[in-house]
Amino acid sequence: IKDLGAAELAGRRALVRVDFNVPLSDDGKVADDTRIRAAVPTIQTLLKAGARVVLCSHLGRPKGKPEAKYSLAPVAPRLAELLGKPVTFVPHVVGAEAEAATKALMDGEVCLLENTRFEAGEEKNDAALSAAFAKLGDLYVNDAFGAAHRAHASTEGVAKLLKPAVAGLLMQKELDYLGGALEKPKRPFIAILGGSKISGKIDVIEALLPKVDGILIGGAMACTFYKAMGFETGKSLVEPDRVDMAKDLMERAAFRLTIPHDATVAPAIAEGAKAHAVKRDEIPTDEAMLDIGPDSAASYARAIASAKTIIWNGPMGVFETAPFDKGTNAIAQAMVEATKKGATTIVGGGDSAAAVEAAGLATAMSHVSTGGGASLEFLEGKVLPGVAALDAK
Ligand code: 3PG
């Protein structure tokens, strides 16, 4: 795909699709600006080149009509602080007023349009809406990796109408890291996959198995594997209809798939709960696995230390509630150490990225993806429609 270097920028309106789908606090302020900060390099580059920047994004999942709590208005002041220059908020997605606002921009100025999902045509990838978006720019830049798995009017439809349609710097960086790991990883290459459900990770396990030297499993999804091994799983979260699948996967993967040898269990998820470690075949009937055990955490840390490329997606336990955050933190720390020694460390978006951000370790990794669903689909080997729609090199 083409990048910013392929576009003439000075004096032109760049319609830039960003992923400003950020959490807002109850008083309507940006609660986590990670994704806004991640888009700044592209915006700065465009501004320096004398472009007129028109930003658009979705926020949350409004159902095709305006809803005050999903307005992008709170993002404009935060972005203005980060850029050190005014950002005009335009309370329209498309239409005459939006178009007039984009035409009023001078070189080096920025405006932010209202939530693209306030338009019913956005998620339908409607042709008329795509054409309306195309009127808001002279070229198109997609920097919304986090939304690239959606074939929507602002991510896919408009890219086919506005030329050139190029990737922003964040988009390029995400594709370089994730794509680089899949195509030419430094070895050993390992993946650490966690989360509560095996059903959400099965496709990524299947896609990574032929490429990696090992996959280390964590999170409650380990319990579906325990069940497949014939172990008691107590009150743990298990997906009974996936047990056969887990069995089949273990047989095919053999030594390349590691299921945690011990588990941290407790009667319930509660701050400071009476947690204790047990071997994986000793989970009490009245307790649930809520984290990987200390032996597994230590052995996973050793595996990370000897790997050259590490991809991590999904927490090892209920990391939001101490003490069930120990496994997740151990992985994060081991990845920080590996990064220092020159390994390429990649954290997939979503929960594991949130855990790494919360621990203040994001900058100590090679790359933390801004995409949750998008990074997972990319690792599954799927074509992301928002990327496929950009101009070929
Ligand atoms: C995300 O948060 O993963 C992206 O912004 C996509 O949001 P969506 O799942 O609502 O399409």
UniProtKB/TrEMBL annotation:
Residues where ATP binds: 201, 320, 349-352
Swiss-Prot/TrEMBL keywords: ATP-binding, Cytoplasm, Glycolysis, Kinase, Nucleotide-binding, Transferase
Catalytic activities: (2R)-3-phosphoglycerate + ATP = (2R)-3-phospho-glyceroyl phosphate + ADP
Annotated binding of (2R)-3-phosphoglycerate, by residue: 35, 117, 150
Enzyme nomenclature, EC number: 2.7.2.3
Oligomeric form and interacting partners: Monomer.
Protein name: Phosphoglycerate kinase
